[in-house]
């Protein structure tokens, strides 16, 4: 079955760049949209952005200056980069297949803490 | 883009029904039939329960149903079961500029 697995550092220093990868197994990354969502501890979900298999991306307006989502079809994975992080970026980060109104497969999530 | 508004909590006894509201604006819920609902158990990833207002993915029990009126969407869980106790989030398409928004979340308790 289709599975998504997030990976990356669990601790990032303030002002640095958070980098995460989502490996897709059981399905080709081509032909779908792929989304990043985050959830600060005890808070609601926040849509961050999506990318199509062709590389066309769309980001939440308040994050647009700091976020980049890219896709690597050769590795069947997509990635998230969030620059100039602060403590407010501490959250569980999820990758998922689809767009915000139909995210049918989710990764388990990875906790990222921003702290010096 | 502000989060969609949901009540913080809802509850019901086993076998009863509970309805959760999700209030947006004419820029999201009110204009587009792209509303979905996600169920999240503690420490777990969310699961898609309803999409496009009222459609159920394969495997989701028909006890879960969705609807929309104006700027407010609703999720109804009928015949409540213990495993339905979870957090529920709505989401909506919000146009090409803001694209997507989630709700504030509702904790459903089975009494």
Jot down its keywords.
heterodimer, A: 116 residues, 4-stranded antiparallel sheet, B: 111 residues, mainly beta, 4% helix
Number of strands of chain A: 11
Structural class of chain A: mainly beta
The Cα radius of gyration of chain B reads 13 Å
Q: Give the SSE string of chain B.
A: EEEEEEEHEE
Q: What's the tally of helices of chain B?
A: 1
* Average predicted local confidence, pLDDT of chain B: 94
Q: Tell me, what's the shape of chain B?
A: globular
Q: What gyration radius of chain A follows from the Cα positions, in whole Å?
A: 13 Å
Task: Please give the share of residues in helix of chain A.
Answer: under 10%
Strand content of chain B: 35-45%
The succession of helices and strands of chain A, N to C, reads: EEEEEEEEEEE
The main β sheet of chain B shows up as:
6 strands, mixed
Distance from N terminus to C terminus of chain A (CA atoms, Å) equals: 39 Å
Stretches of chain A where pLDDT falls below 50 for ≥5 residues?
Answer: none
- N→C terminal distance of chain B: 35 Å
State the assembly state of the protein chains. Answer: heterodimer
**Total count of helical runs of at least 4 residues of chain A:** 0
Low-confidence stretches of chain B: none
Q: How does the helix and strand content of chain B classify structurally?
A: mainly beta
Largest sheet of chain A: 7 strands, mixed
Mean pLDDT of chain A: 94
Describe the protein.
- The complex is a heterodimer of chains A (116) and B (111).
- Chain A has strands spanning 3-7, 11-12, 18-25, 33-39, 46-52, 57-59, 67-72, 77-82, 91-99, 102-106, 110-114.
- Chain A is mainly beta and 116 residues long.
- In chain A, strands 2, 4, 5, 6, 9, 10 and 11 form a seven-stranded mixed beta sheet that branches. A four-stranded antiparallel beta sheet of chain A has the order 1-3-8-7, with no helix packed on it.
- Chain A is globular and about 40 Å long.
- The mean pLDDT of chain A is 94.
- Chain B has 111 residues and is mostly beta strands.
- In chain B, the strands form two sheets. In chain B, strands 1, 3, 4, 7, 8 and 9 form a six-stranded mixed beta sheet that branches.
- In chain B, a hairpin with a 2-residue loop joins strand 5 and strand 6.
- Chain A binds chain B through residues 37, 44-47, 50, 58, 60-62, 94, 99-104, 106-109, and chain B through 1, 3, 32, 34-36, 38, 44-48, 51-52, 57, 89, 91-93, 96-105.
């Amino acid at each position: 079955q289709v599975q998504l697995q997030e990976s990356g550092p669990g601790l990032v220093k303030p002002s640095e760049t958070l980098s995460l990868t989502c490996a897709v197994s059981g399905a080709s990354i081509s032909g779908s949209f792929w989304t990043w969502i985050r959830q600060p501890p005890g808070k609601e979900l926040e849509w961050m952005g999506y990318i199509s298999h062709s590389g066309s991306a769309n980001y939440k307006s308040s994050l647009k200056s700091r976020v980049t989502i890219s896709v690597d079809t050769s590795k069947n994975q997509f990635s998230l980069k969030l620059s100039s992080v602060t403590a407010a970026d501490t959250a569980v980060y999820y990758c998922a297949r689809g767009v915000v109104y139909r995210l049918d497969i989710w990764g388990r999530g990875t906790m990222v803490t921003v702290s010096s | 883009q502000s989060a969609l508004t949901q009540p913080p909590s809802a509850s019901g006894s086993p076998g009863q029904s509970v309805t959760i509201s999700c209030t947006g604006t004419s820029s999201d819920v009110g204009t587009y039939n792209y509303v979905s609902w996600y169920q999240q158990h503690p420490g777990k990833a969310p699961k898609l329960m309803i999409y496009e207002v009222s459609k159920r993915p394969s495997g989701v029990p028909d006890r879960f149903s969705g609807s929309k009126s104006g700027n407010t969407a609703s999720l109804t869980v009928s015949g409540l079961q213990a495993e339905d106790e979870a957090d529920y989030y709505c989401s909506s398409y919000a146009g090409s500029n803001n694209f997507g928004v989630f709700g504030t979340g509702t904790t459903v308790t089975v009494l």
